[in-house]
Each structure stands twice: as structure tokens, then as C-alpha cells.
Amino acid sequence: MRYGNIAMMNKETIWNKYLQVEQESFLVETRSLPGYSGSAVLLWSPCAMFDMSQRRFGRDRQLADLSKPVQLSDFITDKQDMLAHIAAKGPYLLGIDWCHLQSKAYVVVDRRSDGSDVLHPNRWFVRQNAGMAGVIPAWKILDVLKCEELMEQRRKETERMNRDADGVSLDVAEEPLQTTKQGFDIPVPTETQFIGDMEKASRKITPKSE
User: Fold this and answer.
1) What does the alpha-carbon distance between residue 40 and residue 95 come to, in Å, rounded to a whole number?
2) pTM for the full model?
């Protein structure tokens, strides 16, 4: 596990020099190193009650009177608010870790009497981790899953599996189950159900106009 903070939302892009494209990304300040690319990045927001949850209820965020100590009652006004406050605020899938930004540290060969550094005459430098990672938004995963190439691959694989299963019948018609780490038996999702869950989990929330 690595922890950090969102430093920049996805309005700005990060240049992908390998694919030569501007990649929509969140910029996350985190203690992560190159090699963790491809990891899922999860979002936990304990303060969501005072922002996103209010907007989901169709209400503007309430502001407390800062001239007196802030009380929870300044924000929570009804049972619906209380349930939103005590409910879990994550983890939510923010996206996929895809890059780690680097900065240049120039080689210092001496130090002047005034304390300034003397750099190597050839301007040698080493690259160091800037502590910032780029995260591709979760909804981009859905775009990839729904691209024509992968959909065609899945269609062909489904046809192949159906051909291989020709003439084979199950003794029972029960829905296949899988057991979670907590010991619960849950149905194995179909591809349609999985895509549907991804659409729900990665949907964009458009703020209401004032």
C-alpha cells in the first residue's frame, strides 16, 4: 500500500512521450516508485460528507458560522445527513497508476564562498523521483474495455468456448458461485454485469449549474 493526496484534478493532461499523446490524468502526490505502474489507485474521502454527499442530495454545501466553534450539527440537519455521515466514503476506484514524474538534480562540483553551488561544466544531472504519479481516470478503463478490438476478441473467445462446450450439459442448472475472503457465496458476474458495474463505478458526476 502507498498513500498520498490528489494534487491536481484531471483538467490538465500529462504528455505521454511513448505514445505521443496528451493523457487525461489525475496528478497524485504519493510515496510511489516506478514499477508500480498498472496498479489500481483507490480514493478514500472522509470529508465527503461536507462536499459530494450534500450535492448528491441536491443541496448546496452548508457553511458553518466560523465566529463560533464548529459543531457537527452545523452540517448535519436531518436523518439523511446523519446516515451519509456515518456511511463509508470509499474506497472508490480513482483510476490506474501509469507514470511517475521525475525532476532533474544537477551535479554540484563545488560551493562558492557565498554558499551558492558550482555546477558541473557539462551540466551533468541525475533524474530523481518528484514524488508525483499520473493516474488514468477510472472511466478510461471502460473506454478500453469497450473498444472495437477488445470487443471483437471477446466475441471470438465466446464463440470458441461455445463450440468447445457443444454437446456438454450440466447436471445442475444452479448459478455458479464464488466464495469471498469473508466466507460469503456470491454469484460469478457475467461480462454484461461486469461492464455494467464498471459503468456505475466510473461514471462522471456533473456539478449542477448555479
Assistant:
1) 6
2) 0.54
Pairing of strands 125-137, 92-106: antiparallel
**Separation of alpha carbons 8 and 190, rounded Å:** 35
What is the phi-psi region of residue 20: left when phi exceeds 0, alpha when psi lies from -120 to 50, beta otherwise? left
- Give residues with Cβ within 8 angstroms of 207, minimum separation 6: 55
The helices-and-strands tally (H runs, E runs) of the chain is: 5, 11
pLDDT tens-digit series, residues 16-55: 887 788 889 999 998 888 788 888 999 887 654 444 445 5
- Interval 63-82: pLDDT, tens: 445 565 655 555 555 566 65
Nearest to 194 by CA among 141, 134, 156, 129: 141
Q: Is 155 left (phi over 0), alpha (psi -120 to 50) or beta?
A: alpha
SS3 breakdown of the chain: % helix, strand, coil, rounded to 5? 25, 30, 45
